[in-house]
Amino acid sequence: MMQRKKLVSVCLVFCLTFLTIFAEDTGRIPFVKVASAQDKVCSFDGLTFQVATNKTGEEVGWAVVEYDKTLSGSVQMYPTVSSGTYVDFPVVLFADDLFSECTINSADIRLSDDFLYLGEGVFYETIVQNSLAIRDFHGEIWEYAFAKIKVGGDLEIKGSSIGKIYDYAFSGADITGKLSIIGSSGGIEEIGPYAFRNAKMDELVLSDDIRKIDAHAFEGVGLKNFAFGNKISYIGSAVFENCNALNTITLPESVPNALVVEADAFPNREGLTFVVPKEL
Question: Does position 8 have pLDDT exceeding 50, yes or no?
Fold first, then answer.
C-alpha cells in the first residue's frame, strides 16, 4: 500500500501542467495530451478542466485534472462543459486520484458518450457522507478506483456496459448502503483478482451477465448468497475465500460448454448450499 500512496503524490504534482497516457504502455485509451494554455483551462465548483487532445492533435474533450480538496460540499458533474469557444464540450477523462483522500457530502456524476477513462484511484480513501452515483458509465473501472472509500449511503454505477473491474478496484470499501454496478446492455466482462477484497456493504447488486470472475475476487466480503448468470465462462480460484456469511450459491440455468471452474474455486464449503436448476 505504500506504493499506492506514492502514486497519489506524483500524480498531483504533474496533473496541472501535462498529462500523458500511452496506449502502448497501458493498453487503456488512445494517447491523450492535456493542454495548459490559459484559454484551454477552466474551473467550476472546485473542479479544474483542461482540454485534451489525441495523438493526431485533435481536441477530444475536457480532462478533469484537479479537485479542490479543501471543499466538503456536494459534487455534481454533467456530460458536457462550456467555456469560451468550447461550447458543450464533452468530459472525456478523470485524472488518477482526482477525489482521493478528500471528504465530500455527496456526488452525482453523469458521463458523456465520449468518455474515455475513469482514473486509477479516482476515489481512493474518499469519504462520501451520503450517496455517490455515477450514471451513463461505459468503459472499465481501474485499479484502486474505489479502494478504501467510505460511503454513508448507496454507491451506484450504472450505464450501458462495463468492460472490466480491475484488481483491488473496491478493496476495503466501506459502504453503509447498497453497492450497485449495472451494465444494462453489455453487462460486466470481467471481475479482476481481489477486486472486492474485504469490502463491506449492506447489499451487493451486480449485472447478471458477468463473463469472468478472477481469483479471490470476493475474498472476505460479507455476502450471504451469490447467483451466477448464464454468460459465466470462468470462475477463478478462491473466489469466495473467507466469505464466512455465504450460505447459498445459485448456478445458472444453462452452463456454457466452455465454462472453466478452478479446482479450489469454492473454499470453505462446509455449510454452503449449491442451488442447481432442474435442467442441469
Answer: no
